[in-house]
Description:
The protein is mostly helical. Helices cover 86% and strands 0% of the residues. It is globular and about 50 Å long. The mean pLDDT is 94.
Amino acid sequence: xxxxxxxxxxxxxxxxxxxxxxxxxxxxxxxxxxxxxxxxxxxxxxxxxxxxxxxxxxxxxxxxxxxxxxxxxxxxxxxxxxxxxxxxxxxxxxxxxxxxxxxxxxxxxxxxxxxxxxxxxxxxxxxxxxxxxxxxxxxxxxxxxxxxxxxxxxxxxxxxxxxxxxxx
Length: 168
């Protein structure tokens, strides 16, 4: 599954990079809009499992982590909005339709193969950090972008830890 995750991610990144070439904050806004979907999906599945009496030993920890990640990604989204990232209707249309599909894919994926779902999100967070690092390399220091980059690295660590919990 990890190979499939990598292929799908690379294909999607290539499309988004092509569409948003030279439009950094629009691309960042789209990516941040989409970045919240897995965490919403993970929470939805965890709530469903809890409702069905299928709560696992790390259930509460994972719910807290994913809720915090959702809030953090929303803060990133709001910052990108303040920089004009959502100013074009086509970007809003594209992101909001893509996020609907991505949310439901993550719900099914997390229910069926949580470790693989975490791996995909881990890879996405690493890509996000690399994207912000490239921006900083090209455009110079920006405190907020650096903070977001560090948040993305922190999310990737949390997702890695979640994958390890599933192995235990």
